[in-house]
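User: Predict structure, ligand glycine.
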Amino acid sequence: MKVLVVGGGGREHAIIKKIKQNPRVEKIYALSGNGGIAIDAECVNIGAKDIDGIVEFALKNEVDYAIVAPDDPLVLGAVDALEDKGIACFGPRANAAVIEGSKAFAKNLMKKYGIPTAGYEVFDSMDDALAYAEKSPLPVVIKADGLALGKGVIIAQSREEAVSAVKSMMMDKVFGKSGDYVVIEEFMTGPEVSVLAFTDGKTIVPMISSMDHKRAGDGDVGLNTGGMGTVAPNPYYTEEIAKICMERIFEPTVRAMNAEGRKFKGCLYFGLMITPDGPKVVEYNCRFGDPETQVVLPLLKTDLLDIMRAVTEERLSDIKVEFENKHACCVIMASEGYPSDYDKGYAIKYPKELETKIFFAGAARKDGELVTNGGRVLGVTAIADSLQSAIDAAYADVERIEFDNAYYRKDIGKRALLATEVK
Ligand code: AMP
Ligand code: GLY
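Assistant: Predicted complex:
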């Protein structure tokens, strides 16, 4: 079987490593992959947003199955384009990917179907948005409607900040068309949990829960990043919370999408906050999370490709999806300066035996040598019987990986550990 994976980050590397375990897989293409992914797949220089290029490549190379991992191609209709040419895919079609592509759509969906989320208003007029921002309680959360590389959310602590956030999105268009609409919402409090779930539009199967660490600095300070590390499972996601989420959030979301004529098939990501009033949705993503995938998939016992194909063929209820009863910790090693400016091109060195545990993101080949080529360079994931051992093992591995200007948080998993101790 020939499998194509669209994307080129740590998440895609984790998917590829898992898919490779299926004995029927003879070839994996990564479009465009990266210099580190090249260890496990054939990387082809076709960008994730080049839908025509992806379809043409898939047809020419007789690809049997395509996995579209990033948000952009999903929202742009990569799955529609591939399926229309007869190529089986994992991922939602564009009319369902809108659940991530438009925050206004997602919020209106939740309101219509009674799915718990923060109170909000959607604006297409800057004057109305400014008037609302002037009177809403602080802090207030301002979100650009469309995709904004995870940077389109501003938690304004003051009126000035709120006003300047609205203006930067709606007047200065810092996120382009993504700021044509803004969502202004109530600020929620409580621990955050990420839950990725397989769904074929009929059945929904949540994967093991996880916790992201989005801020750049130790103690959750500094700028928002794409994610500096993850642990799984998330101790705040108790069995009781899981049951509530299934009944009030996961199943209702699948039903709501069907009722709207937007059947969602693929991985649906629930960004949840466990508020004093119970779990609420912070955001939906139409795809696997990054770096959540780097802790969730290594714990998956069931064959990933078998699950994915069952999703495509709408027979997910036939599959028993099982996870190891263990803990995983992924520490992201970034380039010093990320998420702002950073240098690249530094040689990456690591002992060969770590290769199976490293998921490359911003890495490239230069004269045959692996070098840094992005903000988040790689993630290293360790699995152990306890959270503490997983954290210790991940940091022991980090110590053995070297590149100039490496930066990583020293406290991945710390908050999760504290939560375990309190209980
Ligand atoms: P998002 O891109 O929607 O996931 O938002 C990024 C981060 O902003 C989330 O992970 C939360 O930490 C925070 N956030 C978003 N919406 C809210 C909200 N309504 N209340 C509190 N924090 C929020
Ligand atoms: N880790 C958050 C995301 O993938 O959007």
